[in-house]
Amino acid sequence: MKGVEIIQDTSKKPRYAIIDLNILQDLFDDFFGALMASGQTKGVDFLRDEKGNIVKARIDLNIHQKTFDKFFSELIVKEIDSPITITPDLSRASREEKLNRLVLAARSFIGTPYKPAGDSVLGTDCSGFSFMCFKEIGVSLPRTSRDQASIGKRVDASELQVGDLVFYATGSDPNRISHVGLIVKGGGRGVARMIHASSSRGVIEDDPFSSYYAPRFISATRVV
Question: Which of 74, 115, 117, 187 would suit a FRET pair with 145, their CA atoms being 20 to 30 Å apart?
Answer without folding.
Answer: 187
